[in-house]
Each structure stands twice: as C-alpha cells, then as structure tokens.
From TrEMBL:
Domain Thiamin pyrophosphokinase thiamin-binding: 139-205
UniProt keyword terms in alphabetical order: ATP-binding, Kinase, Nucleotide-binding, Transferase
Keyword Cell inner membrane: no
Top-level taxonomic group: Bacteria
Listed InterPro entries: Thi_PPkinase, Thiamin_PyroPKinase_B1-bd, TPK, TPK_B1-bd_sf, TPK_catalytic, TPK_catalytic_sf
A single MF term (Gene Ontology): ATP binding
Name the record gives this protein: Thiamine diphosphokinase
PANTHER family: THIAMINE PYROPHOSPHOKINASE
Pfam entry (one): TPK_B1_binding
Keyword Transferase on entry: yes
Biological process, per Gene Ontology: thiamine diphosphate biosynthetic process; thiamine metabolic process
SUPFAM superfamilies, sorted: Thiamin pyrophosphokinase, catalytic domain, Thiamin pyrophosphokinase, substrate-binding domain
Amino acid sequence: MPIHIVGGGPRELLPDLRAYDGKEVQWVSVDRGAETLLEHGLRMVRAFGDFDSLSSEALVRLREMLPELDIWPAEKDKTDMEIALDWAVEQTAGPIRLFGATGGRLDHLFGNVELLVKYAGRPIELIDRQNVITVHRPGAHTVLKDERHRYVSYIPVSETVAGLTLAGFKYPLTNSHISRGSTLCISNELIQSSGTFSFSEGILMMIRSSDFSGCL
C-alpha cells in the first residue's frame, strides 16, 4: 500500500502528482499540501497540520472530505511532516513518497532530509520536479537507468561510509571509504541499463537528478 504525503512546498517544484496516483495509493496532506491535493482532485485519507494557511473555502472542502479532521496546534515538538511520516511508517511497510518537501525554507528542507535519515533503509523517497532522494543502509542495492534522472550522486550522511563499490557507472569505485563532507561521488551516470552500489558500514544518501532546468 503506497502512501504519498504532500507538503506545502513551492508548487512549481512539484512533479505531476496525477502521474503518481493509483488504485491502492493513499494520499496524505501536510498543512497547505491539503489545498494542493484538493486542486488536483486527489482524495485524502488523512491530513496533518494547523491549516492556518488554508483559505476558508479549502478548509470547508477539507472538512467535507475528512469529517473527523484533526487540527494540530502550531506549537509542538515535531514538524507536521514528521508527524505525518511517523503515522505513515506505522501504516505500511511499502513505499512512502514525500512531495512538496523541498524548496522554500531551507530549515524545512534540511529537516525533511533528516527524516529520511531517521528512517534509513525504509522505502521512502523525497521527490520533486528535478530530484529523487533516498537514504540507504549497508548492503547491495540495484539502480535502474532512468533518462529523466540521469545524474546519480552519493553523499555520506554518517561520519564514514566504508567499502563503497559502484558498478555499471561512468565513474566506478571499488571498496572505497568516504567521509562526511566528501564530494567524491557527486554527479555520476549509469552506462548500462542498471548498476549496483554496495557498502559495508554507514548510511548513504542517493540523489537522482535531471538536467538543470532553472527551477531550483
């Protein structure tokens, strides 16, 4: 059961949300993301936030869709996105995708990336119009070539990532150790229909990006 969470980030950075819809997909909104989902005609199963940024018309429509709407206080110990993601992780072991979670305020962007680190190893993606971000634990992982996101970058989010091996890439690596702050593995490309990355210790972020389009 895929769960797709839509936050209130800049709409110009959103991909086409309808392309991610499906019979089993459950849509969840975070604060102003509710208005985005209403405008796209995508039905929500849950909504999180204080909704103070919603128009009165959107709030009425949201209450009609979710009669038992929980309105969270503005002052709390977690962001609305973290509350929504914690809920989603309890509901499914399947894929979770975050939209509207990049751009705008940098504190929210970095906070949302940290949420991926919190749940490293779970099938969670942070997606915008240009990028797909995932965070991985040690092991061997397969990457399929995607012409929409031709550039593949790896960034250590632990102090060290040990034994990193990249196969099927333009710039391969074999049993390399990289430290946090390294840019060694930025902007690589697959040269085959698929490739693999593996490592023995640490936590590693993978970012798949399209060509620069001027939207970031």
